[in-house]
Write a structure and sequence with these properties.
Helix content is about 85%, strand content about 0%. The protein is mainly alpha-helical. The longest helix is centred in the N-terminal third of the chain and has 43 residues, at about 5-45. The two termini are about 30 Å apart.
Length: about 120
């Protein structure tokens, strides 16, 4: 009985940490994904998305510190680089490269969300 109580406490802590990080990662990625969609909409309507892309960059810079505890740093850096490219191409109105950067950010955010799902692939 003495060993069961600490084991249950550890199990509860592990499950709490997993579900807390899972919901945090999904919330951050969905908000960033919505920010990319907003950039696309603004760019299509007005030909520029400076304000939305700056907001997205600031949002990602704010959230990446905590996100780095749960997600591979290389993937976080790729997202940050793609967001910077998105902002740069919006500024210079390079249509093809802007849409390419938006697609890259979306794919990377989707990859982060998929990597945090609990599957046999992620466990092993």
């Amino acid at each position: 009985m003495k060993r069961i109580i600490p084991a249950v406490i550890i199990l509860v802590l592990i499950l709490t940490a997993f579900f807390g990080s899972y919901f945090y990662i999904n919330d951050v990625c969905k908000t960033a994904y919505d920010g990319v969609e907003s950039c696309l909409k603004e760019y299509e309507e007005h030909g520029t998305a400076r304000a939305d892309s700056a907001w997205l960059r600031n949002y990602w810079d704010e959230k990446e510190k905590i996100l780095s505890f749960f997600v591979n740093h290389e993937l976080i850096d790729k997202v940050e680089l793609s967001i910077s490219n998105l902002e740069l191409h919006s500024k210079y109105k390079d249509n093809y490269m802007f849409f390419e950067a938006c697609d890259t950010v979306k794919i990377l955010l989707h990859q982060i969300m998929e990597d945090t799902k609990l599957t046999t692939h992620s466990v092993f």
